[in-house]
Write a structure and sequence with these properties.
Blueprint (H helix, E strand, L loop, with lengths): L6 E12 L4 H24 L5 H14 L4 H20 L10 E6 L3 E4 L4 E5 L5 E7 L2 H5 L5 E10 L2 E11 L7 E7 L3 E8 L4 E8 L2 H17 L8 H36 L1 E6 L1 H7 L8 H21 L4 E4 L15 E3 L4 E4 L5 E3 H16 L26 H6 L11
Helix pairs in contact: 1-3, 2-3, 5-6, 6-8
Bound molecules: zinc ion.
């Protein structure tokens, strides 16, 4: 389904009014939900990872025999499988579906954006036509995009449709490279020219400590009331409120960082280098220094926003395996030793530098060696001295985030 070229995906959500009776559509949604549940139950009992092919062999003909079309069946087992996957990786229980919702592939609907109508192919050769209710402006945005999937939902007596659009991006040819290193309490960002000159260095504080404190606090409450906390209204409400606050803090922050990064990247025409978080987990890097399980979701969220905002502006985003980036000397490749205050030193060549800055330079070097289309050989390493600190480091996050200009006065050269 996903091509090799980078794409932007976005959903258009609209209320949908069936023309004529909605009985068949409701029937379809019920059948769909039940079919997903049956597949979920089966996959759950099998208790191992299943390939697409295996899924197809196990479920296709059964689902089709109940009146579903070929692509309905495919969507049903893929969706069921993803539900089981995520329940398992969260250590949750077997998913039980209550809501009426169906994912439908592009082969089973026809979308007419001019007339704002959607025709759905249902089970047993039924068809239903829906009128989409949304503003013209919102739709205009998606002219020229292609759509490939929709989700139909029935909620509180109303039908809702989300249409998933995508558009290939033609990346802007980068003039600089921006390497971003995510850390427990800060995000460090370095912009370098293609021949290795450092143009800008910046650091954002993260609200991670604040989030962590809340989490620990919640866990303590949950432990104190062990299994009963769910049933005590006051306790449950406190836990929920704190959970929500945590989510808000982290989303707000991620959006702001995404915006700031995109603004900078546009200004410097940067290709954006991020750490590959999947690899990060495999490498088990930094395991001792922070709680990975807690950290990773936060990293993902930040990366998601950075990727979203920059791709939206047709900038290139590349993920690089961060293995060794915070332990190797960017000049000679030897292992670095830690001095005090996050300063690392190379015993072999004497290079010293801030840990996070070194990480960004190493990310940059990895990118350059992988994509050496411009024939860059080394890094000129005008890296900052250990006593220099990127701006935005002191003071609190709000300060740094509120006033973009004040925290962007760093290493302009
Ligand atoms: Zn060295």
């Amino acid at each position: 389904m996903r091509g090799e070229e980078p794409v932007v995906v976005e959903a258009l959500k609209a209320r949908a009014l069936p023309e004529g009776s909605c009985d068949k559509l409701l029937e379809f949604l019920r059948l769909y939900r039940d079919a997903v549940q049956i597949v979920v139950d089966r996959i759950w009992s099998i208790n191992k990872k299943l390939s697409r092919r295996k899924l197809h062999r196990l479920f296709y003909s059964n689902v089709v025999s109940t009146g579903f079309r070929a692509h309905h069946a495919k969507e049903i087992y893929i969706y069921a499988n993803s539900l089981v996957d995520s329940a398992r990786s969260n250590g949750g229980r077997k998913p039980v579906l209550r809501k009426l919702s169906a994912r439908i592939d592009k082969y089973d609907y026809r979308l007419d954006l001019d007339n704002m109508t959607l025709t759905l192919k249902l089970h047993s050769d039924h068809e239903v036509k829906l009128k989409l209710v949304t503003s013209r402006d919102r739709v205009e945005k998606f002219r020229g995009w292609s759509n490939y999937e929709i989700v139909v939902k029935y909620e509180d007596g109303e039908f809702w449709v989300s249409v998933y659009f995508r558009r290939a991006i033609k990346p802007v040819k980068p003039r600089t490279v921006m390497a971003i290193d995510l850390n427990f309490d800060n995000i460090t960002l370095a912009i370098l020219t293609l021949d290795g000159r450092l143009v800008k260095l910046k650091r954002f504080k993260t609200p991670y400590r604040k989030i962590l404190t809340r989490r620990i606090w919640i866990e303590r409450i949950q432990k104190k009331y062990s299994s009963s906390w769910r049933f005590i209204r006051g306790v449950r409400r406190v836990v929920e409120r704190h959970g929500e606050r945590t989510r808000n803090i982290s989303w707000d922050y991620s959006h702001k960082v995404g915006d700031l990064v995109a603004e900078l990247a546009i200004r410097y025409r940067s290709a954006i280098i991020l750490e590959d978080l999947e690899k990060l987990r495999e490498n088990n890097k930094r395991g001792k220094r922070f709680n990975k399980k807690l950290g990773l979701w936060f990293y993902r969220r930040i990366q998601f926003c950075i990727e979203y905002e920059t791709r939206e502006r047709d900038l290139e985003v590349i993920k690089i395996n961060p293995k060794g980036t915070s332990s190797k000397c960017p000049r000679c490749g030897s292992k670095l030793i830690e001095n005090e205050n996050r300063v690392l030193r190379c015993r072999k060549c004497g290079f010293t530098g801030d840990r996070d800055v070194i990480a960004t330079i190493n990310l940059y070097k990895k990118y350059v060696s992988k994509h050496s289309r411009c024939g860059v050989s080394g890094v000129a390493l005008n890296a900052p001295k250990p006593n220099e600190n990127p701006s935005g480091m002191q003071g609190n996050r709000d300060e740094a985030m509120k006033n973009t200009s004040s925290c962007m006065n760093s290493y302009e050269s």
